Amino acid sequence: MFDGLKDKLNSFREDVEETAEEAADADESADDADESTASADADESTASADDADAESVAVDDDDSDDSAAAAAAETDAETPSSDESDSDDADDSDDSSSGPGTLKRAAAFATGKVIIEEDDLEDPLWELEMALLESDVEMSVAEQILDTVEETMIGETRKQVETTGELVERALHDALVDVISVGQFDFDERIAEADKPITIVFTGVNGVGKTTSIAKLSEYLADRGYSSVMANGDTYRAGANEQLQQHAENLDRKIITHEQGGDPAAVIYDGVEYAEANDVDVVLGDTAGRLHTSDDLMSQLEKIDRVVDPDMTLFVDEAVAGQDAVMRAQEFNDAAAIDGTILTKADVDASGGAAISIAYVTGKPILFLGTGQGYDHIEPFEPEELVDQLLGADQ
Ligand SMILES: Nc1nc2c(ncn2[C@@H]2O[C@H](COP(=O)(O)OP(=O)(O)OP(=O)(O)O)[C@@H](O)[C@H]2O)c(=O)[nH]1
């Protein structure tokens, strides 16, 4: 699941680590050279002003490492000035050791840490942006992720609290969780607390796995002790009754249907009446796989809203549709406010773009992932878990 995206996030982590290591290389060699002369340095009276300066900038609170850190900083601080007189050699060391961050970088390195400068991030961030867009992450979502990563890495590193690898991981983790978990609520809790029967209406275009998801959710609810009835509000498409009927038979559930061409709102209404009369907990109402561009079909949805007043409207789309799924989610939500999304076929999606983007773009959470064709192939969507998996070592 989402393997392409995993690889790309991992590349970003490697890019930043590499860049940070390169930037620290000069400091490392300076540090190594200096360690061998560290004791001699203690006796030297030269560059005492530099020593004091380096300590005050780079090493605030680490007693035991003070001398090593300051020594590293000192060497680095000395290098440019001595190089400046050697006109031809000046370029080499200037690249990595000039600028206000140098002392800090060197001091941090001496204590086993690396500071990320804004320049270090420029190329990796650009690569990350391209990777996210290639993975079908929606533009505004990609930008939000980049902003958070940059903010976290530049701001926090200066505190010298962690290594580059840890820092990149935390920055990506926070950025992804931020966009993925928009609007999250506990579906099970919502079901448990609501007055019964609860009516859930499913919307989305044809063929994305809507009918299968209704059957899966019916099973999911049964596993948690809730009975359900299916109501086929897809009166538009020939064969829709038979399709849902088949699932109902397989799962031994009651199904309410009307003739093809009938009023979808009336079918779902009958489902609610049946549930009330028979003490059924949940009504699962299918709707026609409408094109979001079809006014007629959209007005059917509005009528269902008016007549049945569903407790929840869930938008269903397939992860493999990428940006198209994101766009449809937005348009469906505009036409008839959704409460959340079921994202199907996550098991066969490498890009992960829809999973990353839909909640941020609609302001409504992804509640479930479809992970296969079986009735038990539905998983509650857990943003933290997904991000851990995306950033996990098992790539
Ligand atoms: N791999 C995989 N296949 C799925 C998943 N969910 C549904 N499918 C398959 O996708 C195909 C379409 O699913 P349907 O439930 O018929 O889709 P629908 O949206 O109801 O389609 P219409 O009834 O034609 O509007 C079926 O072959 C399902 O088995 C999933 O999570 N993973």
Automatic annotation (TrEMBL):
Residues 1-103 are annotated as: Disordered. This is Signal recognition particle receptor FtsY. GO terms for molecular function: GTP binding; GTPase activity; signal recognition particle binding. It comes from Halonotius roseus. Residues 365-378 form the SRP54-type proteins GTP-binding domain. GO terms for cellular component: cytoplasm; plasma membrane. It is an enzyme of class 3 (hydrolase). Its EC number is 3.6.5.4. The gene is ftsY. It catalyses: GTP + H2O = GDP + phosphate + H(+). Residues 1-14 have a biased composition (Basic and acidic residues). Involved in targeting and insertion of nascent membrane proteins into the cytoplasmic membrane. Acts as a receptor for the complex formed by the signal recognition particle (SRP) and the ribosome-nascent chain (RNC). GTP binds at residues 204-211, 286-290, 344-347. Belongs to the GTP-binding SRP family. FtsY subfamily. The lineage of its organism: Archaea, Methanobacteriati, Methanobacteriota, Stenosarchaea group, Halobacteria. Keywords: Cell membrane, Cytoplasm, GTP-binding, Hydrolase, Membrane, Nucleotide-binding, Receptor. It is a peripheral membrane protein. Part of the signal recognition particle protein translocation system, which is composed of SRP and FtsY. Residues 15-35, 50-66, 75-95 have a biased composition (Acidic residues). Residues 36-49 have a biased composition (Low complexity). GO terms for biological process: SRP-dependent cotranslational protein targeting to membrane. Its main location: membrane. It is found in: Cell membrane; Cytoplasm.
